[in-house]
Amino acid sequence: MDQKSDASWSAIIAAHAKVGLWYECLMLFGEMNSEGCWRPEETTLVTLLSACTHLGALDLGKCTHSSFLRNISELNIIVQISLIDMYVKCGCLSKGLCLFRMMPKRNRLSYSVLISGLAMHGHGQEALRLFSEMLWQGLEPDDVVYVGVLSACNHAGLVDEGLRCFERMVTEHRIVPTLQHYSCMVDLMGRAGFA
User: Fold this and answer.
1) Of 146, 165, 183, 193, which one is least surrounded by beta carbons within 10 A?
2) Whether residue 91 is found in the same domain as residue 126
3) Domain encompassing residue 72
């Protein structure tokens, strides 16, 4: 293809992302940028954020965020959640939390991303506070949210709280436990010495 349009660049990058070729996504984006005047589409930038998240490439994620701010007047909720996900999973929790607090309308996915990120980095109590806030806001948790919640209990060593959350998930929210939920509980019990 002699001349590539925004759409063709986006399609090529998305195809690489779909099969988990994250490094190649970033290389293609670099090539796209070196061609000059191409302005990446919003979906391409979200894909790049996902690549940065998977590779732990915080600096490049920050550059992508800057590109959003330069090229897009108003960020939609998918972009906002992708930014939060990238920042928290790359260990920049304060920035992720700041972006979350700035969101005009938070949804279950935005809470889920932040709860999981906090749990991943050992901030179990804060993740559980955020879960309580989500429930207080009237948002119904799903199985993904509960993986984050149980992981938070696990990493913080909160055995009793983990058991209560698991019970609540099954009885109150009628969520059928998956292998991930059971794995969190086995790990929680193992860390607490219940072998």
Assistant:
1) 193
2) no
3) 1-105
* 146 and 80 housed in the same domain: no
Residue 1: C-alpha distances to residues 12, 32, 126, 165 (Å): 12, 13, 50, 54
Beta carbons within 8 Å of 8's beta carbon, 6+ residues apart: 1
Query: What is 74-138 written as a DSSP string?
Result: S--HHHHHHHHHHHHHTT-HHHHHHHHHH-SS--HHHHHHHHHHHHHTT-HHHHHHHHHHHHHTT
User: pTM value?
Assistant: 0.84
Answer whether 72's CB lies under 8 Å from 47's CB.
no
Q: What are the distances in angstroms from CA 45 to CA 28, 59, 131, 139, 184?
A: 12, 14, 29, 28, 33
Closest to 36 in 3D by CA, of 77, 75, 3? 3
Residue at which a domain ends, from 105, 133, 162: 105
The tens digit of pLDDT for each residue in 76-122 reads 888 899 999 999 999 999 999 999 999 988 999 999 999 999 999 99
Distance from C-alpha of 47 to C-alpha of 159, rounded to nearest angstrom:
37
Q: Which helix (H) or strand (E) holds 27?
A: helix 22-34
**Rg of the Cα atoms in the chain:** 19
Select from 79, 105, 131 the last residue of a domain.
105
